[in-house]
User: Fold these one by one.
Assistant:
Number 1:
Amino acid sequence: MKLRYRFLTFVLLFGLFTFDAAPTFGQVGDIGNILQSGREDANTLARAYLEPFGSGFGASLNTGWTNTAKTHGKFGFDVTVSAGLAIVPDAAKSFNVNELGLQKLELEGTNPVSPTINGTDETGVLLAAYEEINGNREKLLEFNMPEGSGFGYVPAPMIKAGVGLVKDTELMLRYTPKTEIGDFGNFNLFGVGAKHGINQWLPGGKMLPVNLSVMFGYTNMEVGSDLDVPAEDVIDNQNDTYNQYNSSKWDGQSVALNTDAWTINALVGKSFPIISMYAGVGYEASNLSITTPGSYPTVVPNENFDPNSSDEETKPLKVDALDEPIDVSIDGDNGLRALAGFRLKFTVFHISGSYTLSNYSSYNLGVGISFR
């Protein structure tokens, strides 16, 4: 049974349900096999495969903080449910395994280009590891890199509340308690931001026909899922491999994803009775960390190998355990950005949308209620 990276499926499905036009897919990755390739190669391959997801997820989380340049009046507030959708650049949809500097694995075949998680839905390259044992070149393991999702976007859902305070200042909060989504996993989200009007500090600023403000937002999102990778999944040749562990050794396997994203922007906008429009420039950054708590099986040469013995313990290969094999930190390919958006308000109900131009450009669409 192959391992499914269910935490990625869960995140994408939760984001995708907010987009009626988005394609639905139940599998976005199958990278369990790389866990057996050794700590260094597993981390290298995980980083290469997931890098656009990290950058795109951070860019998506950095959207949706505001829908006007104007701040709420004192004790005015809004609650907005929205979803960001980052666009993955074509250059980030594949990678060349020959450029990764793999330590243990070798490319099988001639084509070294493999899809990333947001690349084409074609099976990735075939990789294998070999070892010289008793004068023979023995194959320890072999696996294909996972296929891409065929979906060149990274969505992120969010719920935001904002309240007006004194001095033309607005406090913004994002919060979702730990929530289970079926068998896919769980997530929780927290974010804090602020927007401050600067017309009041400019000579004649209150006479200007536009609203000027600065804003900051920080979001942290955690996603987790249980995993199930028994030794049987990594043993190619049962007759030549000694398994010293019982099944309980692999209990407690899980995967955890943690994303930090922040942005700071200068905004200018104009509000009318029904529509508000704004634009701005700013900076964004993000970081995605992925860890795999628990022990995971791998196949290694058996130091007790004896070709003249028929004992189980002397087979040429054996199952070994890797503790927490993946510990990857991916900085988002973010930076300077420009953004523009609008809000349509009908009494207390509003619809909002925005577009952000950056290395990972993104859209955001939201609905909510607002007062003052």
Number 2:
Amino acid sequence: MGLDAFVYCRCWQDGLTTLCPVEPVGIDEEGYLALLLQWEGNKAAHRTFDAWQAEACPHKAMEQASEHVSNWAGVRLFQQALRAAGPEHFPTLATALPNLNGGSLPADRAAVALAELDAFARTDRITDEVELIDEATGRVLMQYVESYHGVFMFGPDYQAGVDPDGFFVLDRADPPATLFRAVRFGQRPLPGDRVELTAGGTRTVLAMRPVGTHGEPPPERLAVRSRSRSGDDFAYIVEPLRRLCAASVATGNPVMWV
């Protein structure tokens, strides 16, 4: 689950594709190259169009570029960094990424976004990021995502996460009550799918899975830290966005978010 995107090649626009065996073909209201017939009553024609599009030109599915941009948490962290840096510094990027799948970025805006991506990547200090780490190894277990209110774990009776004030566990009542909060704490798995959390001489036992397992033994000591992040730390999303925007500029076609 996450955000993907592609840019059409120019083969259809420039008359370089094989002849489509069904008609009419054009750009639909959402910006997709499509068979402009309703689905009902024309299913066979749509299947013929899909088979043609897959092999109509040297580009797979008639796409100049196709990228997995990031999972949604990565998108939100990038948007969060842009807000922290100041939207006035990256105005196009600040509004370019969608909040849901769908939509597009026109080629003229992609050209501006490409320049902003280059400037973003060169920035030595973008933001300070709040993280929950395993103290023994430094492994990052959670990151604070503002738009998720820091929540990263959900259970039948609880939700847990990290924010600038520390790691927290809340119940699922309305309004939620804080069951545990600490900046540094220990944890110990207990029988019966429970965990013991200790901090500052207090001990809390909760019916929840240990934090930071992910196929590994759960860490015993955990801490929340703030770490400075540079443009290089966001290469995971900057690089696919660069490739998409460059393809958009080269073809004049929009980036299609999917």
Number 3:
Amino acid sequence: MLRGGFNFADGEDTPFGLSGAPAKSIVLVGQAGAASWPHFLRWRESQSQAIANPLDTWSREVIGALANDFGARAVSPSDRPYLPFQQWAMRADGLRPSPLGILMHPQYGLWHAYRGALLFEDEIALQEARDVIHLCDACIDKPCLKSCPVDAYSAVGFAHGACLTHVRGAGGAPCRTGGCLDRNACPYGTAYRYPATAQAFHMAAFARP
């Protein structure tokens, strides 16, 4: 699904478009909830199990085909050198980060993602991002910071090493099978929560050596 977009300002340092000229407009593409998960699984059944990053590969195929249809350059969050996708997303969708770092959406909560973007060398008409309620401001209890057994998320940031060690260990079984306990504790957007199989897929990728 389209996830908003914007036109780059004059003089702004921008990525290049399809021909190598500076891009003038960007449209982000991604998902909300689990609607895309069955489509990915069907594609996965027909692919080699040796693909290292199947979700990235599938996303590039889908968004790349869309880019070909519209004469745009497709880029991905995992492209190197990394592009500022989170900054682009905040600018396009008007969102702000949650305490977990994931952008909080007023409808989808934490259950959404940006899988790629289309870069256009011509300026296109795009609706400006509206001001949205940041639900984290109204959340007093902050259960997203109280559910992790190793306090991976706190006011000082993400304790990556502690989280990874826990997820890989015997005590991390609930995280491996059902997803991040802090993320699942968030009370917003629960109707869009990813199914356990999708969360387990992401946690397996995170814990992979």
Number 4:
Amino acid sequence: MIKSLAVSRTFNLKLAALALASLSLAGCGGTISGAGPYKGAIESKTEAYTLVDIDAKTIAPYMRGAVPPVLATVTKPVPPEVRLMAGDTLNVLIADTAPEGSSLFAPLATGGTQLKSRIDSEGKLSLPYVGRQFVAGMTLNQVENMIHRQLKGITTDVQTHVELVGDLSGSVLVAGAVKTPGRFSTLQGPLTLLDAVNQAGGPVLEPHLVNVTVRNGSQVQQFNYEEVLAGNNMVLRPNSEVVLDRARQRFVAMGAVTSPGLKDLPDRNTSLLDALGSVGGLREGSANAEGVFVFRMEAGKPKPVVLRLNMRDPAAIFYARQVMVKPDDTIYVTNAAVYEWQKVISPIVQTMVLGRATGVN
């Protein structure tokens, strides 16, 4: 019996020593926590960044801007001038004015002579009695005039009409983050940017998460799709390319939040309160509401900025509603001190209880 008590006492002394060593490690290095830096460490090492306590006096530079108004104008498509290119298919009508039976082409009264021809890879169009003529870059009217000139002297005065029936020059390519990418014809009429995206099935992401790039020759324009929906629509020039891709509208949530990780901003004008809500809010039982931080790199400023909110203050709820979260921001919520203590002491207590139970047996 005496020997058993001695063994138990020795074991408990070892456990106590282990507990003291663990507590000293927790107090010195802060290496026990894997969530990130402690609140005190962030507040003390301000030589690397500018620490801003958000309150009524300091909030102004970090507030959300006003939502831009929706434009009342409606884009009115106007048929653009089509310039032909290789791959276009033309339907050519040639009608002779001479009596039937004495002309190369059928008279207009009988419908004339219908010829269908594709512009080859060299940009040339081949027609009987006209020959192989370079037409790339011409308008339909210019092709009609060219045919009329080439037939002069070969036959009597003719009537010509050229119609584009298979177009590459007038089509619009839509690619990227849309449901059904492809090339869409403008033969039925000019396309606006919204027309083209709708024909492609619409974007696969929320509008504020989509950037739109419109390319035509040397001209490049970029929009956010929300801006297009707000009224910044435009008529697309023939042979345009429209590319939709994911906008860099993300932030990182770390520490004592319910759902940490890389997240999409809920909208283009996201508040800190909205961002916290999108990750489930502060984690109950472990978060230090006094230590809510936003880490931000700002172009043109010598040092990064760290915003700090004390969510124990009821007014901080209103501040969090007004502070804007920008793409690439990091939101970090520190752990409560009691939670850090529990992480250290709980395994020790469990081990001591298990050891005591083993010693008694």
